[in-house]
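Researcher: If only I could read backbone structure tokens as easily as an amino acid sequence. Walk me, if you will, through where the backbone shape changes along the chain. I have put the entry right below:
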Amino acid sequence: MQSAELKTEQFRCEHCHSFSRTREVRFVDVRSDVDLRRRTKNFAVRIVKLYRSLPKTEEARILGKQILRSGTSIAANYRAACRARSRVEFIAKLGIVLEESDETAFWLELMQDAAIFPEAKLRDLVQEVNELIAIFVASIRTTKGFTSAF
């Protein structure tokens, strides 16, 4: 995610008068970026394994494909967000990641509520996707520069 720090720079004007200016410098915390990339990819792998272990019923197949699409796209779209060329593009791409995360949470909840797969086996995935949602919401808010609901 992006962080900010204030940096003071020294300048000299044409008439040899020095002055300083304080500006905000944005930088990417590479360690947390790599950790989140790894975390979203591991989540995608877990989704693939879930899909492979679903019952061979029509409803499990249909919901499974939805979860497979949205759950694996979280990692792919987060990776694309990390390559954004501007702050606006980063926010837009992270918004897509958030949408896919929320959709995955919905499909997992539906699978639980419809008793298609044992709730106990889905619990960790549901918890992980909810944690990812919280991270992405906080990242979008931070990048936009405010903490109120958007």
In short: The two ends are 18 Å apart (CA to CA). Strands lie at 2-12, 18-28. The first strand starts at residue 2 and ends at 12. Residues 87-113 form the longest helix (27 residues).
